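Reader question, answered in our methods column.
A reader sent in the components of a multi-part assembly and asked whether the whole thing could be modeled at once rather than chain by chain. We filled in our standard form and ran it. Here is what they sent:
COMPLEX SIZE: three components
ENTRIES:
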Amino acid sequence: MFKKNVKAWLYLLPAILFLGVFMVYPLIDVLIYSLEEGYNSASQSYHGVGLFNFSYVLHDPYFLQAVKNTFVLVIVTVPLSTILALFISLGLNSIKPLRHMYQTIYFLPYVTNTLAVGLVFMVLFKKTPYSEGMVNLLLNWFGASSVDFIDGPYWAKMFVLCFYTIWVVLPFKVLILTSALASVDEHLYKAARLDNTPKWRMFTKITLPMISPMVFYLVITGFIGAFKAYSDAVALFGTDLNAAGMNTIVGYVYDMLYGNSGGYPSFASAAALILFAIVLTITCINLLISKKHVHY
Amino acid sequence: MKIRLEQLTKKFPNRNKKQGEFVIAVNNFNFEIPDGKLIGLLGPSGCGKSTALNLISGLEKPTEGKIFFGDDDVTNLPPENRGVGMVFQNYALYPHLTVQQNIMFPLQNLKGKDKLSKEEMQRRALEAAKLVQIDMLMERKPSELSGGQQQRVAIARALVKMPRVLLLDEPLSNLDARLRLQTREEIRRIQKATKITTIFVTHDQDEAMSISDMIVVMKDGVVHQIGKPQEVYDHPTNLFVATFLGTPSINVFRGRVQDGQLAIGGENVLSVPGVPNRDVICAIRPEGFLLDEKGPFTLGLERMEVMGRDTSVVCTHEDGVSEVIRAIVRTDSVVDEEKETVRFTLIPSKVHLFDPETEEDLPFMA
Amino acid sequence: MQKKMDFTKIERRAMVRSRAGKAVTYFLLTLWALIVLFPFYWMLLTSVKSYGAYNAEYIPTFFTLSPTFENYQTAFTAVPLGRYFTNTLIFTLVTTAIMLVVIVLAAFAFARLEFKGKNLLFTLFLSLMMIPTELVVITNFQTITNLGLRNTFAGLILPSVTSVFYIYLLKENFEQIPDELYKAAQVDGTGDFKYLLKVMIPISQPTIVTIVILKIIECWNSYVWPRLITDDPMYFLVSNGIQEIRENGFGRENIPAMMAAVVVISVPLIVLFLIFRKKVMAGVSRGGIKG
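And here is the structure of the entire assembly that came back:
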């Protein structure tokens, strides 16, 4: 028995080692960091224990801006991308010819490098002295005036960020919803059709309840993902997100840790814990709502 | 509602192109289903009977031909406007709705002058539930019901809107043997009570024979025979129908008619006046054998199988197409099991002759 | 007669409605397909426009009659794009390989071996799934810095060679292999390790392929950790490379060269996807959330 135990632990050793060093220890450490006041990276010393780090972060205008940006992004992209994905999946499931082609195309953004394609979006939306940019050209065609989406007004930058985020997250949602829709027993629709059920009622009374577990799964993971937004913003607006006013909470954490304004792991830890608390709360609320509305 | 099919044909594109461009699931159907009867569409699996049902419901569009409900041509009418009720093989109950909500679902679709009040819907749902005896389960979800109960809910849901036609696709195939017997009586009772023209599809001949007013025997998309169950059993028009109906199945031999006598394996076993001299396929029902020590038909004796109600004598014959020959005899008959052969006399009405080429029935005066 | 009229009307309306519905569906699907494809088209197009031609376009043009490959040359010579590329390749392959070993061993122990504290340990593992990387990145950054592993492959790779989720996925898969096979192997005197190699891994191959594909996508696109841990361009991965190019490379306005770099970076994964389309999509729907 002893030998058996040893063998099992040997098999597990690498996993435990890596997880211990890079997951469990940091988890405890981040709590400690967040409570150490005035921690200095260089001397690795601190002069007190308390909640000052949290208070500092919560009063930092950059952090508040990041929170605002993140919330706007979440509130806009999660519902919009889910609804859009639902419509696209419904469309995909209602056609036969070319369906695979559309599915393949829609999936492409998933396998692209966020940073690299973000650069393309920047080029498309940017307005420079030499060129109006592609999107502005379209705007002009429709009689609107040009806007600089990358260095211009806040709403324009937010629009690009949301648009790009939706573009990036849609493949996953479309994939999940398409397979959820396809797994609904087609006889249910046949039965409903024979009963002269209107299309809209079929959707609300059969389709939606049947795929509701998957929709809630997407909403929950969508919230978590959107709250962690960062690299999309970097791709569009560059690494100095504070200057662009487009920072996100995760971006704030990294900026506190490293880079021009870095070297404050305590502030970073406090911010990361605040983010974790927000995500946990939202996820719990989501789970409670889904318990009430998912029927089986 | 009387239903008439005229030259109804359905072709599907063939996935395996080597075997031809189309699969013909339903080939040139021409028949009329009288009002208020229970009709069984019977055939081996893959014979196109479910397709036929789907054509009548409108879920599939025919390639050619016409469908009439009464005098109305409904061939191109979308399924939702045909007023048919259908029970699917897997019942297709809405898993997230209660029994009551399931049964009320079709009623909630009514619009305009047909719209019902909530009370009226509940009353009608309860009525339908009572008819199939599930009125005490109204608040349950389908997952909390047994197979038989789910089946009844499906029937109640199909009946509640008072359809002109009721279609049942293999309604009993998902039930266990005992429940199957009970449910088929139930279907008969409900059909009698509602007088709705009902068509059901099955591959089980007992099921079809026992409750139908009329059966339609199909194979490979072609209708082979239509008629009252007993009629079809007694007078099969071809070899397929003869072999498909009846358990144990009919015994098939190669034989020859010479001078009005049917010869199998050198013995003249039966006189069949009116048939010219020729080779024939001869099919004899198991109950068509009478034990007779002086009988003209000699078979090799294998063993006796006691079934309780009767006894089956298992025999062999070198001209038998089927490997063993079964004769059903009374339990009190005496057969010496030590002997190697057993002799029978044949009951003429239980003997059928078929053309070896066309497999069509060759009538003779019994 | 009145009724007959009604029928033809209903039939015609149903037909018109279904055709119109189809047309609208295809139109909208095509519209979204264009929105998805357009950035890809634009980067390809821009990457073959010459620097001078691109900058002379005040109004962007939708095609070019004189494609040039000089931007690709620039992309590989003016900045160490080849270097970034090799780094990413090494990073991706090594990380995936080590991870496979680690998770296969752990999943095997959880699925097949009996030992004290197994359930407790597995519960602990599962609870780690809820921990966001953002929370642990801070300390990991400090750890790697303190170990002097900044700007090394070890520093890049080590923190991402375990995944609790993949251990879980693989364990579930291993558990579906019938017990009888394991018992039969023991009767034949096959050792645990040999059994793992010769029986379990081949049987679980589809899941393992799924995990490999997901990990490759993840590695190829990883940005945050490499950015924290490397500031020497010798160790940049493509994501950091592209960011570097954007901020300091080519001079800010050489968009065509940037686009050439973007194309080079994007092509491998897209090709991989097009080859293993079914596997990738099945894998992602089983367990992939980007990021």
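What stands out: The mean pLDDT of chain C is 87. Chain C touches chain A through 92 residues (CB under 8 Å).
Send us your own complexes using the same form.
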